[in-house]
Amino acid sequence: MGGYNVAILGATGMVGLEMLRTVKKRGFPAASLKLLASSRTAGKVLSFEGTEYPVALADPAAFAGIDIVLSSAGEAVSRELAPEAVRRGAVVVDNTAEFRMDPDVPLVIPEINAHACRGHHGIIANPNCSTAIVLMALAPLRDVATIRRVVVSTYQSVSGAGKEAVDELDRQTEASFHGEVVPPGVFKKPIAFNVIPAIGSFREDGYTSEEVKMTFESRKILELPELAVSCTCVRVPVRIGHSAAVNVEFDRPVSPQEVRERLARSQGIRVVDDPATHLYPLPVDAAGEDDVLVGRIRSDLSHPCGLNLWVAGDNLLKGAALNAVQIAECMVKDGLVARSKVS
Ligand SMILES: NC(=O)c1ccc[n+]([C@@H]2O[C@H](COP(=O)([O-])OP(=O)(O)OC[C@H]3O[C@@H](n4cnc5c(N)ncnc54)[C@H](OP(=O)(O)O)[C@@H]3O)[C@@H](O)[C@H]2O)c1
């Protein structure tokens, strides 16, 4: 049976586990699956859907004979290990921010710019989770009218910050029921019963690193280098599912119905938009779903060419693992993986 030797780097993390689930669920042609993590978990066995997978130490030698690496172990790990994997003949789909803005690295959402994969030199980057979710709703609207400006406010779940962040929300929430306090660890402020308007690090201009990702990654993926994007990123006490309020300014007045119809025809999008029956996208409904949900589609009453949307998507799926596996599928389909071993 043919297939590719696949490694998941960061396999024990929030995204890595979803990568494993997605590879299995979509029937990705994996001849073998190697799970890699740090020395904290290397040597342990991960049990998944009745199969036991040994977790190996992520070091350069681990990539010998690997064709495709799905990488999600943080920027520093990608910086060190992605080039080592490429040197050993693998292609790396990297989920961290490390290579996204490198001009030699395609940054891809397959529904939008799958063609960019063809220019790869071994590494293909997966976008930031909020950027991927927002662009799924935004990209089809380029067919409706020219987009002049986008203003985004995100409402990002704690799983976007990894498994320890989810534990922190759970522990703080539970402690509060007993009148106790669990001090912040992963986050700089308490996250239970709170919202934190700061994700990533602050820059001199007052924006955060997360906010500028939305601007620069959107421009690269949409191939609109001048696109005006303004973004505020906020962490909310939701376990899984990022939401965003998106204001779009077009070059002409656009009706909500035109937008609804265009989005209804878009792959990977589900329009959930019937305010009369309280149908609108919720992160709890988006969690576990491949599709990005879009609703609250309405004219911007303050601007003749403006439109407002509300978007929700699973940050671990379309925001990370699903998009990465879809990239790998494109690479396979277009013959862009140098298969080193076919059994
Ligand atoms: N979570 C999201 O929604 C999301 C979305 C898009 C992008 N990302 C990016 O994806 C990456 C992982 O995110 P996550 O949420 O999955 O984090 P996580 O839950 O904290 O998992 C981190 C993973 O990386 C592994 N790891 C850490 N240090 C390592 C090292 N030195 N060598 C090898 N493996 C190491 C961990 O292994 P151990 O179990 O051994 O510690 C674990 O498997 C981050 O760069 C993040 O920014 C996350």
How would you describe the overall organization of this protein?
The chain has 343 residues and is an alpha/beta fold. It folds into two domains: 4-127 and 320-333, 3-Layer(aba) Sandwich (Rossmann fold); 131-314, Dihydrodipicolinate Reductase, domain 2 (2-Layer Sandwich), CATH 3.30.360.10. The protein is 29% helix and 24% strand. The protein contains nine helices and 13 strands. The chain has helices at 14-25, 75-87, 110-113, 129-138, 163-177, 209-222, 256-264, 283-286, 317-333, and strands spanning 4-9, 30-37, 45-48, 51-57, 68-71, 91-94, 123-125, 147-156, 228-235, 242-250, 269-271, 292-299, 306-313. The strands form two sheets. A seven-stranded mixed sheet has the order 3-4-2-1-5-6-7, with helices on both faces. Helix 8 links the parallel strand 11 (269-271) and strand 12. The longest helix is centred in the last third of the chain and has 17 residues, at 317-333. The radius of gyration is 20 Å and the shape is globular. The model has no long low-confidence stretch (mean pLDDT 97). It binds NADP nicotinamide-adenine-dinucleotide phosphate (NAP).
Short description:
With about 350 residues, the chain is an alpha/beta fold.
List keywords for this structure.
343 residues; alpha/beta; Rossmann fold; Dihydrodipicolinate Reductase, domain 2; 6-stranded mixed sheet; binds NADP nicotinamide-adenine-dinucleotide phosphate
Helix and strand arrangement:
Layout: E1 4-9, H1 14-25, E2 30-37, E3 45-48, E4 51-57, E5 68-71, H2 75-87, E6 91-94, H3 110-113, E7 123-125, H4 129-138, E8 147-156, H5 163-177, H6 209-222, E9 228-235, E10 242-250, H7 256-264, E11 269-271, H8 283-286, E12 292-299, E13 306-313, H9 317-333
Parallel strand pairs: 1-2, 1-5, 2-4, 5-6, 6-7, 8-9, 11-12
Antiparallel strand pairs: 3-4, 8-10, 10-13, 12-13
Helix pairs in contact: 1-9, 4-9
The structure holds NADP nicotinamide-adenine-dinucleotide phosphate.
